[in-house]
Amino acid sequence: MKKRNEGIDLLRCLAMLMVVVLHVLNHGGILESSARGMPVYNAAWLLRAAGTCAVNCYALISGYVGV
Question: Average of pLDDT values for 5-16?
Answer without folding.
Answer: 93
